[in-house]
Each structure stands twice: as structure tokens, then as C-alpha cells.
Amino acid sequence: MSLGQFLLVAVLAVPALGALAVAAIPHDRAARLVGAIAAALTLVAALALVAGRSGTWTAYGPTAPGVRPWHTVDSPWVPGLDLRFHLGVDGISWPLVVLTALLTLLCCGYSLWRVPAGGSGRALVALLLVVEVGILGTFLALDLVLFFLFFEVVLLPMYAIIVGWGGDGSDPASVAARRRAGRKFALYTLFGSVLLLVGVYVVVAAAGTADIVALTGGTGLSRGTQLAAFTLLALAFAVKSPLWPLHSWLPDAHTQAPTVGSVLLAGVLLKMGTYGLIRVAVGVTPEGARWAAPVLGVLAVAAILVGSLVCLAQTELKRLIAYSSVGHMGFVLLGVATLTATGIQAALIGNVAHGIITGLLFFLAGAIKDRTHTGALSELSGLRETAPRLAGLLAFAAVASLGLPGLAGFWGEAFAVVAAVEVGGPLWITLAVLAAFGGALTAAYLLRLLRRVTHGPPSPVVAALRSGLPGDPADLAPPRAAQAGGTGVAGAGQAGGTGAAGSRLAGAEVAAWAPLVLLALAVGLAPTLVLGVAEGPVEALMGVLR
Amino acid sequence: MNEPVVSMVQSVDSVALLPAYLAAGTAVLVLLVDLLLARPAATVATAAAGAVATVVGAAAVGAGGVRRTFCVGTDCSYVFGGRAALVAALVAVLVLGVLALSGPLLRAGATPVGEFCFLLACSMAGGVVLGAAGDLITLIVAVETLTLPLYILVGLRRGSLASAEAAVTFFVVSVIATTVTLLGAALLYATTGALHLERLGVALADGSELLDLPLTGVAVTLVVAGLAFKVAAVPFHAWAPATYDGAPLPVAAYLSTASKLGGVVALLAVVQFALPQGVTGPVLALVAVLTMTVGNLVALRQRRTVRLLAWSSVAQAGYILAPLGALALADADARSGAYAAALAYAVFFVLLELAAFAGVVALRPAGADGGRLDDLRGAARRHPWVGAALAFALVGLAGLPPALAGLFAKVTVVRALLAGDAGWLALVVAVNAVIGLAYYLRFAALLYAPTGAVPAVPAGQAVPAVPAVPAGQAAAGAASTGDAVTAAVRPARVVTLALAVATVLAVIVGFAPQLVLDLTGN
Question: Where in the numbering of this chain does the NADH:quinone oxidoreductase/Mrp antiporter transmembrane domain appear (chain A) (predicted)?
Fold first, then answer.
């Protein structure tokens, strides 16, 4: 077993074993620590995957397959179901693998410091690690059936996170709300994944193999099969991504999920859909993709416009950020729909950028909600006055999200539009114009968000934060008392531990956010971090699509 | 005149019959032990030992290749091969599991131990013969031997009106079903002159002019319909929920696992060997669609635990039948794949279903019925391991990870359907899996729900209030007392053991489903 193969297995085995260990250790804090260590080791293994890039890279040639993984592990598992344990990593999946490992580590680290009310901390960390296994497995799988398997793994743990630790308050109404949101999430996503199951076996039954490497390019599949399979697969991934009009599970799930759940949901879970669209739907059934591209493009632009317009009317912080995901994923899907190298590159970097920025936004929204116990924009204003650092970070994240050049959000959105223009023709030019207009709307709602939350005179809940100024020796006890009086949510911060209140940023918060801030800058200034590794694989994919 | 001389003295291969001897011997021995020793523990131990012996015997004989006996010419009435061994072993394992589940029930004293064990062993003998049946009469007699003892077992809860009602419903429906099957078999004999499954298959092969006879169509329909009763397929399902809910919990577990498996095996045998696929395929496809859809939709609205499991097992029967329904279109390769898929699904299903029932039995007071779903609210918080195992079984029945056994079961069926060019049926199965998740998830989430969320009277106050409340509120009061009882109960050790074994088995076949696929494939 080479080092690369060892790393591939380790990336999945470490979090899986970590989850078991966390579940087995009775002591809560020790268990959470073990979970964080497992997540850290996973990140190390994921990063190391790039270092040992193998020589298959140079194997360009007329017969080269559309997927040329750096490392692969391939062993039979269930021959009766055409299922092989076939993993591999290349430039398309690697950035997402690292992003997943990073966000999970940040979430586990954050959970060391703060566990939302509802259940034990170690159960939460164990579930986070299981979710990580599912997401990483989806990105690494090179077998269609294995891909489906990992796709499904994510479903129930995420449901449990939303229902167990989500929402705020334990009154019956909010319990019912988060249960509804969780159930909606579970049923919607299962609907997507059963379509994936059928689509996968339509391909497998026709081609006689489930090997993604062999299948990429659509070899051996008739046009009819490709159209049917693409329809099923695209529907499945459209639910996950989510693509308008199949998005309605997303705002509820994101709003009700606890901070760490929202971060993982928005940060990487949605990427399973877009990644699947590129690797499986477009890769395996290119003819179907060409056939459906205009429809996909129109829906993507509709998602951009609808998402932005809905955001303009949102009154709740987390819900607004959740809906903004619909718009941003619209840009990613527009990039995929163009079926050009530029478009796919835009989709890949858009994926990563959205993961970084929205992860950060959800962390910040969680921090604001933890402090003020409200997410209503009407009750929040003047955060700049009482919590300048928090307000500054929020402004940074919002500006990055709206696609300011120099920050990560820019590249994906700009190049999706460019790719649509490049395709040409009246339809795609119109789509490009509308998408660009959607980009302007994105700026409008994010600036509105900033105006409402950070500017203006401090609202009562925000003003209550003032008593926790940095350096104030009594900044631990009084703010919570003040909040309890000010908002009437007595005891809501019970699981918060120290430092949740007040304007000061806790060390854990800074530690969780700093990598995301730095990455947003780094990817913005040097997009080659993502595009450099993705260039070769995308070219290879384009090679077999033509 | 030219007929080959067929010896009227049949040679009997006793090795092939060994598992059946063991199972039937168990029944006799249980009766004797109960009569002579009259010690409940000894009786149960005898039955359990007999079941273990049957498992071992079936495995040993099955490993030695196909054995035929009671042959007339080339047609044999008893063919003990790999599949028969699998069915026999599975039935015996299920009997063992059900015996374990009945521990608290038998200890509670309301049920006569000797009769219970004897009837269960008789039923096991039917199940063992069933898998090996090679002609229609053996098949029907085996199915009857499997189900006949259940009429009494269902009604064995003394002093329970629901139990007696359930027994009568089950008896009447089942007898009618048997009559219908027998009539079908008689008509088939009238048209073809054959009873052996393989000879029927030859006589009714594609292109045979017998297929144009209306009588053949009627006969085939009657046989299939009669057996569909046994698997509780829609529209022959109405008996199942009432019967399951009225029966003692372990018997309900047996009904929904071993009895259902028996129906599936019988249906499989006639469809695979005897009846023309062109006729049965579309009929079974329709029945499968109806069964899963109706089962799932009605299960959504259930508030009683066993009724929910009953309706869900109706739906599961639909998934099992689905591959059989796709046969009309498929080629021979896809056909054998479809039979294997149906049987594989049944194996995964009975394992998970047994675990689910074991979980419910463990969480309910000794000898109690399934109660309402609300009685189990928060049970996993009080009994984390048992609750987790029950939730695992439910998730498996829904077909999702981490219960990979259930996932692979669904995958097997969908794969067989797509290989048989029945994509539309695969989509129906897929959509039904989503509906199924809705109630399985509700049930599983309920186990973890905080008990405080119920706007119920504290248990301490509810108990004295019960006699005084008017009829309308009695149900609510009973629910909260039921909750109080559940909170106090400790799962019986033997039930926990059965649950643990079923869960471990489900985990093992979840990671190595090839084991099941290999067993069902040959």
C-alpha cells in the first residue's frame, strides 16, 4: 500500500474511528477533545494527499480517461451489486476534501468551547464526524454505487443535528418548528438520493460497470440511456445543491440548525450536489448534459434572481444567509450548465468560495444570535457601536459574499457570467445579462443586511452588549444577567459556557473564524490555489466531453 | 403400454428429510417434555434446542448439494437444495428469536407454555418443508402447517377480547385463502394434469395452447391470489393490522417475519417454476405497486406501535413482490436475478423486522401489547442501548445508513428491477422509500424525544385519576400511566439478548451483504 493509498483510507477511517471513540468515551469534555483531534488528523491527511501526487499525471494521450486520479484504492466489496470500494482523489475533488476537513475541524473546535442546548456535546461531535465521513466519501468515491452510499450516509446524522441541537428555546412551538425543518430536510434529500439510486443503476445496468473512471465520457451508453440517466441524476443533485425550484428545504434547515450544523450544511453539504453534477451527471452522461444544458442554465439563473429577490425581503439573519446560498449556488450551476472549461472552473472555485464565506457568515450569525438571542433584523442595529470587531467581520464576510474583486466570492460569479457569454447565442447572452443583474441584486441585499445590522443606533438587545467591554473585569457575569433582563430569555445561554455573552470575541471564536477569513483573502488574491490543481482534471474532462 | 415402468415403491432419502425430521421431532419432544416434566423452563429449553438442531441440520444437509426424494420419474415432491436450506435455517432462527421474545410473556403466566412451544415448533416444521416443496400439494400443506398453529397462538392471550377477535379474523381469512389456493391448484391439475411445479412449468411454457384456455387464467389467478393473502399483499391485506395488533407481541413478530417469509417462498416457488411469467408478471407488478403504496400511506397515520409495524410490513411485502412483478419483460438472466433479489430482500427484512419487534418487546412491560407510539416516547433516553438498537432497526427498515442492511436490501431490489427493464417500477419503489422514511423517522425520533415535551399530567397524579375519568379521557389517562409503567420496566435479559443478536447479524450482513446475496443466488 503506497502512502497515497494509506492517506486516502485514513481520510475516511480517522473520522469514522473518531466518531466511534467519541461515542464510547463517557466523559463529555474528553470525548469532544478526541473528536477535535480526529478532525485535525483528518485535515492533515487531506492536505497531505496533494503532496504525493503520483506520476499518472503525465499520462496524457489520446486514450487517457477523463478522470486521472492522483491516488486510488480499489478493492471489491459487494460484487453482487457491482459495488467496489474504489476511492480516488484528483484536482476537482481535492479542494473540496480539504474544505470539508477544515470546516469539520473548525466546527469540532467550536464545539469544544460551546455546545448548543439540546443534547450532549459528545453526541454532537460524533455526529459531525459521521457527517464528515459521508461528505468526504462522496467526494472521494470513484464507484457510482459507493458514491450513492456515501451520499446517503449524511442524511440521518444531519437530521439528528438539526432536530437535536437546533432552533432556540425548548417551548413546544420551536421544538415543532425544528422537527418540521429536520423532517423536511430528510424527506427532500432522500427524495433526491433515491432518484440518484435509480439513475446510478440505469447507468450500471446499461454499461455493466460502476467505475466512474471507465464511465466518464459516456462510453458505451446509448443516447436514450444518457438522457434518462441525466434527468434522474440531475434531479437528484438539484435537490441537494439546491436548484430552484427544489430548494424549499434549505431555508428552514439552515435557519433551524445549530451554528455548526448550518456551517457544514451550507459550507460543504450543498457541494455534494454540485460536485456530483460535474463528476457524475456531466461526466458519465455528457450527451444528456448537452441536451439539458439550456434548461439547467435557465433554472440556475432563475435561482440567482429568485434567491436574491427573496433575500431582499428577508427579516431574519440566518434565513437571509440561507437564501443567499440559493443565489450563490445558482452561479455555480450556471457555470456547470455552460459545459465549458471556464464554466466548470468557475463552478469549482465558486463552490470553494461559497463554502468558506458562507461558513464564516453562519459562524458570525450564530455568534450574534448567541449574544442577542434574536435573529430578527428589526431588533438588530448598531452592532458597530457595541461590538465593533464582530460588526467588522460581518462586513468583511458580506462584502466577500457579494463578490468584491480581490475576495474569494468574485471569481466564481464573474467567470460563470463570462462562461455564459463565451457560449454565445441569444439564450446564453440573455442568461449572462440576467445573472450579472442578479449579482447586482446580491450586492443590494448584502449591503441592506449590513445597513440594518451594523449601522444605526444600537437596538436594546445590541446595546445590552456594551456592558461586556473588553477588559472589563466583570465581563463574564453581568452581561448574561443584563440579557436575561433585557430580552426575557432567561437561561437560554445555559449551555453557552463562558464568554458567549458580551461584545468580546472569545478565543475559540477567533480561532474558528481566522482560517476562514484568511482563506477568503487567499483564494481571492490567488485563485490559482484552487484553479491550479483543477486545471488539468477539467481539461481532461473537457477532452472526453467533446 | 409404452410407459416406462415406474416403481411404485419410492425410495426415501432420509438425509434430505433430516431437517424436517428435526423440526417435527422438536414438536413431539416439546409435547412429551411438557407432559412428563411439566416444568416451563425445560419445555422452552427443549424447543430452543430443537430449533438450534434444525438450523444445524439444515445447514449441514444444504451444504451437501441438492437432494431429491419422493420422486415419480424425474419429478420430485421434495427438493432440498441451497434455497430450501436457507429458508429452513431462517425459519428455525426466527423461531429461536420468537422464543426469546416470549420470555417475559411466558413468565407472566397468562400463556400456557407447553402449548405455546408445541405450536411454534409445529409451525417451524411447516416452514422447513416449505422451502423444499416440489409440488403444489406439498407446498400448500407446508404453508398450512406453517400458519395453522398461528390461529391458536394469536388467540392465546387469555381474557383478551382483542386477541380473540384477532384470532377469528385471521382464521376466517386464512381458511378462505387456503380454499382459494386449493381451488386454483385443482383447476391447474384439471387443465394440465400435473401437480409438480417443474412439470407445470413445462406444460404452461410460453406458446403453450393451454394459455389460451380461460380456465388456465382463472387457475393461475386463484393460486397467486390465495398466496398473496399469506404475505398480506394489497388487496388481500386487511386482516394483517387487526391480527398483529391483537396478537401477543412475540406472535406478531412471528407473523410478520416467519409467516410472511413462508408466503414469499411459496409465491416464489409457484411463480418461478410453475406459472407462466407472462400472466403472473403484470398481475404481481400491479399487486406490488398497490401493496407498497397503500401500506406506506396508511402507516403514515398510525398511532399504535404494532399497527404501524403491521402496515409497514405490508409495504415491505410490496418491495419483496416488486422484482417478481418485473418478470414478464425480462430475459432469463434478469429473471433469476429477480428471484434472488426478492429472496435477499426478504432475508434482510426479516432480520430487521425481528430486531424491531425485539426492541418494542424490550421497551414494553412484560406481557403487554404494543401500546400507543406515545408510550415509547423518550424510551431511548431511559434505555440508551435498547433504544438505539430499535432505532437502528427502524432506520434499516427505512433503508438508510447507518443500517446498511436495509440500504442494500433496497439497492438489490432496484438493481434487479432496472436489470429487468422495469424502470417505472424502480421509480415507484424509490418514491415509496421516501414515504416510508416519514413514519420510520417519526417513530425513531419519538424514542429520543424529551419526555417533558408531552403536555401530559405527571404520572403520579394520573394514576389515581384514571378510575374517575369519563370514557373520553380514559385513553389519555391510560397513555400516561402506560408511560409510567414503561419508565419503570427493565428490559428482560433474554429479549435484550435476542435484540443484540439480531442487531449484530444486521450489522454483519450490512457490511458483507454478499453473504446473503450468495446464499439467495444459488
Answer: 141-436
Dihedral angle at the C-alpha atoms of B423, B426, B431, B437, nearest 10 degrees?
Answer: -160
Collect all residues with Cβ–Cβ distance below 8 Å to B10 and sequence separation of at least 6. Answer: B69, B70, B71, B72
Q: Can you tell me whether residue A60 is helix, strand or coil?
A: coil
Specify whether the CB–CB gap between A277 and A338 falls below 8 A: no
Cβ B259 vs Cβ B147: under 8 Å = yes
Among residues A300, A537, A312, which one has the least CA distance to residue A413?
A: A300
Rounded to whole angstroms, how far apart are CA atoms A177 and A424?
46
Which amino acid is located at B88 in the chain? A
Cα–Cα distance for residue pair A286/A220, rounded to 1 Å? 12
What is the mean pLDDT of the segment spanning B172-183?
91
CB-CB contact of A131 with A80 (8 Å): no
Query: Residues B111, B157: contact at Cβ < 8 Å?
Result: yes
Question: Rounded to the nearest 10 degrees, what angle do helices B277-299 and B305-325 cross at?
Answer: 160
Least CB–CB distance from A80: residue in B402, B430, B517: B517
Residue B153, C-beta contacts closer than 8 angstroms, at least 6 positions apart = B116, B119, B120, B123, B247, B248, B251, B254
Alpha helices in B234-383 (DSSP H): 239-246, 249-254, 260-269, 277-299, 305-325, 332-363, 379-382
Cα dihedral A499, A502, A507, A513 sign: positive
Minimum-distance CB partner of A81 among B395, B412, B430? B412
- CB within 8 Å: A187 and B438: yes
Domain boundaries, chain B: 14-449+492-521
Residues 219-248 in A contacting B (C-alpha not used; CB under 8 Å): 228
Alpha helices in B399-450 (DSSP H): 404-419, 423-448
Q: What is the pTM of this model?
A: 0.88
Of all residues in chain A, the one with the smallest CA distance to B420 is: A205
Burial class (CB in 10 A: 0-12, 13-18, 19+), B161: exposed
**Does A12 contact chain B (CB < 8 Å)?**
no
DSSP state of B196: B
State how far the Cα of A132 lies from the Cα of A264, in Å rounded to an integer.
Answer: 9
Region label for A471, one of left (φ > 0), alpha (ψ between -120 and 50) or beta (otherwise): left
Q: Rounded mean pLDDT of chain A?
A: 83
User: Residue A462 has which C-alpha cell?
Assistant: 445590541
Cα torsion angle, B75, B78, B79, B83, sign:
positive
- At B78, which helix (H) or strand (E)? strand B75-80
ipTM of this predicted complex?
0.86
Mean pLDDT over B298-306 rounds to 90
For residue A195, the distance in angstroms to the closest alpha carbon of chain B comes to: 7
Q: Do B518 and A80 touch (CB under 8 A)?
A: yes
Q: pLDDT, tens digit, for every residue of A124-161?
A: 899 999 999 999 999 999 999 999 999 999 999 999 99
For the segment B217-249, what is each residue's pLDDT rounded down to a tens digit? Answer: 888 889 988 998 888 888 888 888 888 888 889
| Interatomic CA distance for residues A107 and A121, integer angstroms | 12
The residues of chain A scoring below 70 in pLDDT are 52-64, 169-170, 466-503, 546
Residue A490: helix, strand or coil by DSSP? Answer: coil
CB atoms within 10 A of CB A452: 19
In the beta sheet, which residues pair with residue B372? Answer: B304
Residue A118 — φ and ψ, nearest 5°?
135, -40
CA atoms of B219 and B225, how far apart (whole Å): 10
Q: Give Cα A216 distance to the centre of its chain.
A: 25
Lookup result for grid cell 411445479: B197
